[in-house]
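Why does this matter for the project? Reviewers at the last site visit asked to see concrete outputs rather than summary tables. In response, this paragraph embeds two records directly. Each consists of the residue sequence and, immediately after it, the corresponding structure tokens. Nothing has been edited or filtered.
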Amino acid sequence: MQDLKRVAILGCTGSIGTQALDVCRQHADKLSVVALSAHSRTSDLAMFAREFGVARVAVTDPDHFDDASLCDLPDACSLYKGSQAAIDICMHEDVDIVLVSIVGAAGLSATYQLIAAGKQVALANKESLVVGGDLIMPMVKPGQMLPVDSEHAAIFQCYQGENPRETHCIWLTCSGGPFFGRTRDQLASVTPADALAHPTWNMGAKITIDSATLMNKGLERIEAKHLFNVGMDDIVVVIQRQSKIHSMVEFDDGSVIAHLGASDMRIPIQYAFSYPQRWAAPAPRVDFRTIGSLDFDSPDMESFRCLKLADYAGRDGGTMPCVLNAANEVAVDAFLHGDLPFTGIDEVVEECLGTHARQDVETLEQLLDIDAWARDAAREVIRCRVG
């Protein structure tokens, strides 16, 4: 047991969390799950706690603190409740690495506190660095933060054995989503059901909508800026429809190193757990003899204006990405509930960015205040539109 890497998974019932647990099942001789958190899906949380025999679980949604399903937790399992609970279950010596797979800005505080406490973090929450990169990255020690997003994990692997100072550019790949090639007029009538049908990736609802608007790629570009210490001009978005090239790094001499593989999040999750080793594949392999072709294109930043807004926020920096992210979360939720058209998402975000006075990032509390302001501002914009 002492040779096992001891894992905590925050957001264990979501898409990334459940795939991480599958990796842990497949490599039970190498990984031990010791702590799990969930927001509201307490039945799944209890089921996973029993399966993996975890020491601690956390529930963060007050509406589910007293769910009957929590009575099914193992006798030796401690239950933590509250907004801080997911972080508290990780602050024990028996946790070697924490997968932060909480969706949205809620993961910011978790990532900040875990890094400050010296914990190794497998980061699947891009908003942590989009919003708080200026605060978090100066605290990160070598090897302490391992990217789980498929694109950032790909770039990280392309850099192994290379000198980052010899980089010409990073090619950040994008599937183009389900609406590739559509005009803005055609996008106006898109429904939530249409947008949730991603062509290649299996993800949660919010991230799937972000992929459809290309906001996901805009957020990833800002995240890459922080992770790899480069400028926005050094990160070029390229459409790769088959989603088999997960990103590329081009070096000064013209050489390009690409990371290719199956469109399966278990692969980057496993690499974060196994780094610097490589374990047996957790997903079906790609037979490159059957692909036929790899297609490339440029993104349409006029039809998909979220990508353009993210470029603006990333270049302006400071607190602008915080507003971008918070307003987008509110707008996406409104779209999913039928209160906003698809093209209304970027319109709400743009209006919030336009009314915010940029500040330099100084504290976590400042970012949380601006996040709250941006959410209120976005809700007001939506209320006025609906009204």
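We now turn to the second protein, recorded in exactly the same manner.
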Amino acid sequence: MTQQVIHPMVKLQRQVESLIASNLIKPTDSIWKIALLYGDEWAFWKKELLDFGFTTQDPIQDLLEVEAWDDD
């Protein structure tokens, strides 16, 4: 039995989907809005997002549309 490691960005997607389901944010909100909810962890997530070509002005929906995260 092998255990598959989940990419950190998949975890972020799941957390953001949960925030949307809880009506704390909307898919049309800018990514920067999740910074308010992540506090001290935001520096890490912001760097990850920027590394994948996102800006903090992009809509959250763009983040959720990614199907595969490649570190290449």
